[in-house]
């Protein structure tokens, strides 16, 4: 199930079930409370039965006058009325009364029956004599009426009980919602304190709802941010390290100028090192921007094969002693960022030329796949150790200096971006990734198993839109 509405469904189920349970529990408690408070207390029941036995005794032994005096005493004592009546019911018009009616007939309520708590008046209690010839009728004395505290119990059941149950439901919901949020808060605090490895999704177990989606987003953000911070720190560290050499050379050149030791050569060195530093800083800032922004280039339609041809022509002009051979489609229309791809492909081709000895060649080919174009750039240099192939796209990474062509073999016109700082392929990778492309590197070998050079493969989708 998608986590987009999982939390809503869970909360709905919890609240709905809690509401139903709330009303059920309230009804159950009210019913049980009302039932338990609707019966006359046992001692009062026995007292009424004793009143009936006393009335029967006086009626059978002392006569009507004594019975009248006793009834007056009871009425005064209990602040109620009482009477002794016969149980005879006479049927008219030769009617016949059933035995069930005769045996069950009463003129009032039995002391064992429920008393309706919602009635304001007290019921008439019926205590039959032992021979059922007469019965004592007495309005239930107020002191014997059950449910004296029913009003308080009813208030507690309708206010206190819902309050307690809703409080419990609120606590359950609060704990359910706040448990991952507290973990997120703790992780955020740790992350802000420099613990970039903190993640929270694993601590949520099998939970799958909007909060786990939030945790996924946090972990994804933490991954990107931590990688970015580490990358930026490494970039600054590498940049400061790379700047030391040209700065040292500049200091030396300045000393030569001040001491008038071959000032022309010193000024040439100053100009060269200043240019190196400018390109180094520019490329580093561009790389830092690409790492930070991860731009999504706006698509524009252009012929990829024509773009590659222009770059190859420029390369042939700048490296006349090295052959750049291009093959592939006559027309390869693509919707992407021409500027980003142009800079990336140029960097890769220049890198290949940079590591290709004189009188060797660089092969550039473009082929069409099912959903993308594949550009192969293959040099005839010394290759890269297999365990370092993936590292060549890291900023400032350089394989053994012996692999590089010396500065003496590099034409002055090609100095831009190619002073051996190890940023060209890193920039190319970021730019190609920005247009949803993929760049890979691998050595290729001769039939005898010798390394014949390095092959860069770039896969580019027909469109980034």
UniProtKB/TrEMBL annotation:
Topology term for the membrane: Multi-pass membrane protein
Domain HAMP residues, every copy: 175-230
Tree of life domain: Bacteria
Keywords assigned by UniProt, alphabetized: ATP-binding, Cell membrane, Kinase, Membrane, Nucleotide-binding, Phosphoprotein, Transferase, Transmembrane, Transmembrane helix, Two-component regulatory system
UniProt protein name: histidine kinase
GO molecular function terms noted in the UniProt entry: ATP binding; phosphorelay sensor kinase activity
First-level EC class: transferase
Reaction catalysed by this enzyme: ATP + protein L-histidine = ADP + protein N-phospho-L-histidine
């Amino acid at each position: 199930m998608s986590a987009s509405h999982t939390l809503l469904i869970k909360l709905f189920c919890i609240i709905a079930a809690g509401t139903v349970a709330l009303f059920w529990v309230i009804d159950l408690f009210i019913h049980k409370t009302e039932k338990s408070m609707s019966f006359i207390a046992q001692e009062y029941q026995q007292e009424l039965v004793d009143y009936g036995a006393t009335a029967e005794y006086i009626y059978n032994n002392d006569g009507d006058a004594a019975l009248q005096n006793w009834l007056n005493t009871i009425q005064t004592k209990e602040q109620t009325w009482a009477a002794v009546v016969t149980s005879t019911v006479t049927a008219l018009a030769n009617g016949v009364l059933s035995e069930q009616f005769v045996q069950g007939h009463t003129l009032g309520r039995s002391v064992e029956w429920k008393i309706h708590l919602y009635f304001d008046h007290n019921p008439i209690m019926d205590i039959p004599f032992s021979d059922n010839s007469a019965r004592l009728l007495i309005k239930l004395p107020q002191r014997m009426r059950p449910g004296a505290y029913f009003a308080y119990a009813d208030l507690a059941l309708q206010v206190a009980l819902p309050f307690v149950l809703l409080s419990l439901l609120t606590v359950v919901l609060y704990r359910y919602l706040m448990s991952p949020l507290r973990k997120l808060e703790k992780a955020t605090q740790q992350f802000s304190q420099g613990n970039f490895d903190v993640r929270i999704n694993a601590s949520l177990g099998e939970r799958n709802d909007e909060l786990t989606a939030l945790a996924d987003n946090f972990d994804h953000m933490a991954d990107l941010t931590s990688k970015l911070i580490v990358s930026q720190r490494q970039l600054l560290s590498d940049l400061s390290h790379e700047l030391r050499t040209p700065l040292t050379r500049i200091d030396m050149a300045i000393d030569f100028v001040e001491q008038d030791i071959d000032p022309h050569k010193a000024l040439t060195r100053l100009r060269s090192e200043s240019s190196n530093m400018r390109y180094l800083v520019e490329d580093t800032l561009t790389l830092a921007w690409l790492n930070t922004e991860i731009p999504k280039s706006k698509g524009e339609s252009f012929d990829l094969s024509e773009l590659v041809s222009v770059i190859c022509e420029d390369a042939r002009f700048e490296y006349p002693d090295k052959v750049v051979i291009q093959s592939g489609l006559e027309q390869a229309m693509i919707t992407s960022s021409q500027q980003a791809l142009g800079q990336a492909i140029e960097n890769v081709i220049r890198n290949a030329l940079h590591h290709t000895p004189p009188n060797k060649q660089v092969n550039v080919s473009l082929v069409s796949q099912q959903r993308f174009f594949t550009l192969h750039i293959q040099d005839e240099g010394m290759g890269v150790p297999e365990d370092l192939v993936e590292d060549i796209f890291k900023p400032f990474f350089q394989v053994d200096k012996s692999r590089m062509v010396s500065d003496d073999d590099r034409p002055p016109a090609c100095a831009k971006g190619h002073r051996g700082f190890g940023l060209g392929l890193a920039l190319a990778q970021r730019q190609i990734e920005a247009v949803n492309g993929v760049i890979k590197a691998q050595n290729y070998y001769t039939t005898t198993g010798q390394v014949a050079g390095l092959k860069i493969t770039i896969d580019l989708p027909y469109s980034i839109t």
